[in-house]
C-alpha cells in the first residue's frame, strides 16, 4: 500500500505544481486553493508512505514523479519547448527512479 500512497502523492505533486503556475504567484483564488489543498494531501500521503518506505527512496521517487510529470504537463498543456537535452534529462530522471525502486527492499 505504501507504493500506492507514494504514487498518489506524486500525482498530486504534479497537480499542485501546475495549479501553482496557474495561480500567478497566489494572486488568483481558485488555483491557489487547489495548490494548497493538493500540497497538503500530497505531503500527507508522502508521510504515510514513509512509515514503510525508506526516506531516500520515498522522497526521491516523490520528487521524481513531480519533476517528470510537471515537465510533461509543461510541454503538453503549456506548450513549453521540447529539446533533445530536456528529453534526455527527463529520461535520466526516470532511469534514476527505476533504479531507486529496484534497490528498495520495501
UniProtKB/TrEMBL annotation:
Keyword terms, alphabetized: Cell membrane, Membrane, Transmembrane, Transmembrane helix, Transport
UniProt KW Acetylation keyword: no
GO annotation, cellular component aspect: plasma membrane
GO molecular function, one term: transmembrane transporter activity
Segments forming a coiled coil: none
Ranges annotated as spanning the membrane: 33-50, 57-78, 84-102
Family matches, as Pfam families: Multi_Drug_Res
Superkingdom, natural source: Bacteria
Protein known as: Guanidinium exporter
Taxonomic source organism: Diaphorobacter aerolatus
Organismal lineage: Bacteria, Pseudomonadati, Pseudomonadota, Betaproteobacteria, Burkholderiales
Amino acid at each position: 500500500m505504501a507504493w500506492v500512497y507514494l504514487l498518489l502523492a506524486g500525482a498530486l505533486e504534479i497537480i499542485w505544481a501546475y495549479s501553482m503556475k496557474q495561480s500567478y504567484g497566489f494572486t488568483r483564488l481558485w488555483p491557489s486553493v487547489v495548490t494548497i489543498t493538493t500540497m497538503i494531501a500530497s505531503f500527507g500521503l508522502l508521510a504515510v508512505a514513509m512509515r514503510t518506505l525508506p526516506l531516500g527512496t520515498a522522497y526521491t521517487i516523490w520528487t521524481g514523479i513531480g519533476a517528470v510529470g510537471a515537465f510533461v504537463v509543461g510541454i503538453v498543456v503549456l506548450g513549453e519547448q521540447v529539446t533533445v537535452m530536456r528529453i534526455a534529462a527527463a529520461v535520466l530522471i526516470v532511469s534514476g527512479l527505476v533504479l531507486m525502486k529496484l534497490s528498495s527492499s520495501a
